[in-house]
Amino acid sequence: MRLILLGPPGAGKGTQATRLVDKCGIPQISTGEILRAAVREGTPLGKSAKDFMDAGKLVPDSVVIGIIEERVKAADCAPGFMLDGFPRTVPQADALKDVLAKMGLKIDHVVSIEVPNEELVIRLTGRRMCKGCGAGYHVKFDPPKSAGVCDKCGGALFQRDDDKEETIRARLKVYEDQTAPLIAYYRQAGLLRPIEGMGGMGDIFGRIVGVLNG
Ligand code: AMP
């Protein structure tokens, strides 16, 4: 099964993708994670992406398309994959279609997680991540046992630069302008599976599984 998880920043794509990986046994491909790792490692890719990411802007299409093109050809993607955070523009969606068509493949479902903007700002400003193992927390909805310390590895928790309120507003605007048009794009292609993204993580997961099985 080849899936796309679509939704604004803070909709819970990453969390749901992790659960789906366990259930479906297909890899999660997160362009945001790949880019953050490149920034941490100081690679040429990371250096070229960092300024865009810190400003809440999209990294150029050519860069992310290149990443995806290489990644979907890897052996672990043979049974399928789940794209989280890609595509984010219509040219990216077109490029994905072409790359897959050349391999004789296509996307099966586009799960679109819908959450109102005010809720997204609350979710994103409270988000914290472990420096050591990358585990995610939320100061209000999913706090660690001891403030600022990871339950899993004892690492220090930090706030992603792009989770600061000003950058969040910029990211939401970018989503509205550049990514939301993909909803109509995939609806037209008959692939869109809209999901109500409010409520508990388990409830949302149940809705996604229902749609995929349905
Ligand atoms: P995310 O973790 O998916 O919210 O991504 C974090 C940041 O990485 C975004 O704000 C963009 O700067 C960059 N990024 C991730 N995926 C893409 C993409 N498909 N196209 C362009 N930029 C991306």
Describe the protein:
The mean pLDDT is about 95. The protein has a domain at about 1-25 and about 80-115 and about 175-214: Rossmann fold, CATH 3.40.50. The protein contains 9 helices and 8 strands. Helices cover about 50% and strands about 15% of the residues. The two termini are about 15 Å apart. By secondary structure, the protein is α/β, with parallel strands linked by helices. The protein has helices spanning about 15-25, 30-40, 45-55, 60-70, 90-100, 115-125, 165-180, 180-190, 200-214; strands spanning about 1-5, 30, 80-85, 110-115, 125-130, 135-140, 155-160, 190-195. Bound molecules: adenosine monophosphate (AMP). The site of adenosine monophosphate has 17 residues, from helix 2 and helix 3.
Q: Summarize this, please?
A:
This protein has nine helices and eight strands.
* Low-pLDDT sequence parts: none
The average pLDDT value, as a whole number, equals 94
CATH superfamily of the domain at 2-26 and 79-115 and 177-213: P-loop containing nucleotide triphosphate hydrolases
Amount of beta strand: 5-15%
Order of helices and strands: EHEHHHEHEHEEEHHEH
Counted by DSSP, the helix tally is 9
Structural class of the secondary elements?
A: alpha/beta
Q: Could you give the count of β-strands?
A: 8
Text of the CATH class of the domain at 2-26 and 79-115 and 177-213: Alpha Beta
State the strand order across the main sheet: 2-3-1-4-8
Radius of gyration: 17 Å
Report the end-to-end length measured between terminal Cα atoms. Answer: 14 Å
Helix content: 40-55%
Shape: globular
Give the name of the CATH architecture of the domain at 2-26 and 79-115 and 177-213: 3-Layer(aba) Sandwich
**CATH topology (fold) name of the domain at 2-26 and 79-115 and 177-213:** Rossmann fold
* Sheet of most strands: 5 strands, parallel
What small molecules accompany the polymer chains? adenosine monophosphate
